[in-house]
User: What shape does this take?
Amino acid sequence: MVEEVILLGEYISVYEMRVRLALAEKGVEYEYREEDLTNKSQLLLQMNPVHKKIPVLIHNGKPISESLIILQYIDEVWKNKSPLLPSDPYQRAQARFWADFADKKIYWVGRCVLTTKGKEQEEAKKELIDILKLLEKELGEKPYFGGDNFGFLDVALIPYATWFLTYEKRGGFSIEEDCPKLIEWANRCMQRDAVSKSLPDPCELYGRVLERLKKMGFE
Assistant: This one.
């Protein structure tokens, strides 16, 4: 049976990037459809009627929404490659915890770095660094968050690293100064073919984000 796999997404979305990456790691062929979120397609509205957001993975006509849930679905369905989630229940729980932590913290704080100025931006930059320091502490001396193997939490987090340049340029600071091991981890991840081929170039992403911010009224 030929499987039909369609991904509805937006190129610069962290949440969509991680799904592309997981599919690449598993060697899954799929059709990618870029969504214009100012004019959402009928397919997106039909496949995700609750949140009406990307990404949505459509597998043989059945939709799966929310990026972390999609990652777990991919890991459970395509078992031909090494698993993304660890086998140990505690380690699985920890990976899910930190992925959820990042999603609840980084997006909104990063948005403040991009869209505010003065004291508010300074506070946002400090908070972002504090969040990244916590993640760096969790990484410790391991090559990957998954230990010796690139895994679920690495897939969930590495797309955020593509936004680091944008945060730095917009905020006038250096993440590497405070989180050098996290940057080393990001560079190590980028050496993987699946990662480098799945994620956008940070300079290109920065240009696209600037265009988006101008359209939103943020100079």
About this structure: The chain has two domains: 5-77, 89-215. Strands lie at 5-9, 31-34, 56-59, 62-65.
